[in-house]
Amino acid sequence: MKKYSYVMIGDPMAVRGTKTLKEPLLSGLWLWHKAFDKFGKKGEVRLLRRKGDFEDYSCIHLNMTGGNLGLLHRIRDELGDSSSTKIVCNLDFDVSAWGRNWMHPTLLEKELQCADILFHVEPVGASVLEFALKRKVYCLPHPVDIDNIDSYKTDDMEPYTAFIFHRYYPDITIPYFAIRDLPLYSVLLGYKGGNVPALTMYDQYYGYLPFIEMIEAMSLATLGLDLFHGYSYGRAVCEFAALAVPCVCSETIAAGQRCFPDLVVKPFDIKKTHDLMEKLLKDKEFYQSVYTKAYKEVAYYSLKNCYERMAQILEEIEAKK
Fold first, then answer.
1. What is the pLDDT of residue 20?
2. What does the pLDDT read at residue 116?
């Protein structure tokens, strides 16, 4: 496979020193540069604006947010239509949040058409964009540092369920109802506070944790729980899978469908959630089969496989010339 160079338009301070680190790096968007650096020609994060700088790379990646809506067409204007450097763009946010984040959808459409490669991280959002824009939109989940997370895997689990808090859907009540009768302690991870206090519901709760501490807390859990209401590819679900910790999760999380197909539930189906977790605790054979499959399937999200999927798309575009 051909080796490509990559730059993401962003603040290089966000990834300073990460290329030499041996410990796991935060899952998601910022890992694309590491995937290209390790398996391609080079991968960087830089704040670039000029054609001469852009053309040092095979592809330029922009994560489209409300704050950089006008940047994509500026990059296209700089590069023109005949440059060998390709513009890659993904639309940020869960698809259910687009309606409250994009004030001018017609302008958004025009911006997105400036990209050579357009992708979203999970299939529902990708299909919405493909229909709206009437063009190919790829489904490409962001990378997860599977290989380094693996080193935190342990057999010395502790008797607790690790529930993942989501800032955009700060619901800690529904999960509480699902897990309160289980013979396990309950630990809430990533809690940012809100109108509903966690003190009366969870045995332990943590706010923001550095990524390594988060992985350590997840690795020690007997069970994981992620009842995200919206559509996502599911970074935390990937991390549970890489740690061989069974995770009951929303059917709207793409990684749940791939890694934990026997554990996906409707986000508010607390009876099924409880019953599955109870089954995992009682049926050791089921518990083992679930985490074994997940541990195998999560390789799909590795840096290597994410790089190869993007490189294949770049090769296909080059072949169409």
1. 64
2. 97
Contact call for residues 169 and 230 (beta carbons, < 8 A): yes
Give the angle 174-205-216 at the CA atoms, nearest 5°.
110
| pTM, 2 dp | 0.95
Which of 25, 22, 70 shows the shortest CA–CA distance to 45?
25
In the beta sheet, which residues pair with residue 188?
Answer: 163, 205
Domain residue spans of the chain: 5-143+302-319, 146-300
The Cα 222–Cα 266 span in angstroms is 22
Q: CATH number of the domain at 146-300, please?
A: 3.40.50.2000
Q: Where are the alpha helices (DSSP H) in 113-244?
A: 123-133, 146-149, 173-179, 211-219, 235-242
**Cβ atoms of residues 182 and 161 within 8 Å:** yes
Best CA proximity match to 14, nearest among 36, 35, 2, 29: 29
d(CA 135, CA 115): 11
Model confidence over 242-298: pLDDT tens digits? Answer: 999 999 999 999 999 999 999 999 999 999 999 999 999 999 999 999 999 999 999
CATH 3.40.50.300 assigned to domain 5-143+302-319? The reply is no
**Spatial CB neighbours of 296, under 8 Å, sequence gap ≥ 6:** none
Quick check: 7 and 44 in contact, CB under 8 A?
yes
